[in-house]
Amino acid sequence: MRPLGALALAAAGALLFAGCASPQGEAGTPPQATEKAASEITVTHAQGETVVPVNPQTVLVLDFGVLDTLDALDVDVAGVPKQNLPKYLTSYASDDYVDLGSLKEPNYEAVNAAAPDLIIVAQRSASALPELSAIAPTIDLTTDPADYLESFRANAETLGEIFEKQDEVDTAFAAIDEKIAAVQKLTPDAGTGLIVMTNAGEVTAFGPGSRFGWLHTELGLTAAVPDVDASTHGDPISFEFIREANPDWLFVVDRDVAVGESGGAAALTVLDNEVVSGTTAWQQDQVVQLDGTAWYIVISGLTAINTMIDEVADALA
Asked: What integer is the mean pLDDT of 66-85?
């Protein structure tokens, strides 16, 4: 038999341990969970994997599509490239935000001075990732033209995970998917389509797999020319090319307007000639000038993609 003093001492110790191990809240409320949410996650992106903080405090964004999405998700950023900001994002031109230079030529001194916790690049700024990664964790959220919608969705979900906005991303894509389904009901009976871009009087065409190719592969509009070269700025073409393709719908992006260059003739003026005017699209008044900011400058983003889908839906309705 253990001595009475030893038993009492053991009981007191047990009570003390229990009190420390299982604290109760006021009025007998259960203890709060001691497991903490992850403070870092590993992100798979276009150039590899990177460990990034969850809800980083100082975020620098070098892509307008990513900025568009973060703006729609109400996520604060500390710095952006202020050159050629889209009009609907001009609030970021204020002195409240660090000017990071341009998309293709970041101001590395400004980036370093901002002491960022996370840097996000994509598209035009993607090549700067190696240098930026030496300053802070950097991820590349470039979309894949061959799988545009799914790559954009994956990128938005990545942002949702980093900033704990998963529910907001899910809600946004539920609405986007509904719009896409509505357009896909219109395209089978719409005939063929060709998307072209004018630039300083020159014309290039885009087909499936190109930067604008999701008009065909995702929204379902039959390509008037399925084998157009999927280069970044399109396949240079002549007016005769458009006439021979004879699309039922001609979708037009004016690069000069999109990048703020006003020296060249407007896109529809360039195309308004006796060759192109002979196409079904021109004859049937089915030439659609697209929002160059959304399609060419921003490329992706929750606001921009709604703009793009709405333009196609309104044209075909």
From this structure: 97
